[in-house]
Design goal:
The protein has one helix at about 5-10; strands at about 20-25, 30-40, 40-50, 50-55, 70-80, 90, 95-100, 105-110, 110-115. By secondary structure, it is mostly beta strands. Strand 2 and strand 3 (about 40-50) form a beta hairpin.
């Protein structure tokens, strides 16, 4: 699933900008949740049963207030395939992430949509 397909699943215009606002870890990163926002529309992107994560942090990342997770625009997203078959890739101005996962869920308006199949 490309970023445009993610926006389509959320029934949002294809030109919408997605921002990651928070990241939550569970069980040492086995489950990773990104809280996201598009305009005033909030949703969650949940990676379940993660087996391998690779981060690239960009040294130019500076923020005057030093928040633990500054809001960052999702520049590129590829969901990969669930059941640990191929990694998902996220790219933002602050970091890049590659994650091999068991399941990927999109949480929005009390609905859960399975992604990455």
């Amino acid at each position: 699933m490309e970023q445009q397909q993610l926006l389509h699943a959320l029934q949002l215009p294809p030109t919408s900008q997605i921002y990651l606002t928070e990241m939550l870890w569970c069980v040492w990163g086995r489950d990773v949740e990104f809280r996201c926002i598009v305009n005033d529309y909030q949703f969650g992107l949940h990676f379940l049963d993660c087996r391998e994560t690779r981060w690239q942090l960009y040294s130019h990342m500076q923020h005057p207030d030093n928040p633990p997770f500054p809001q960052t625009e999702l520049a590129n997203f590829k969901s990969g395939r669930d059941q640990h078959r191929s990694p998902a890739h996220l790219l933002t101005e602050h970091f890049g992430l590659s994650v091999v996962y068991g399941g990927l869920e999109l949480h929005h308006e009390e609905q859960i949509t399975l992604l990455g199949r």
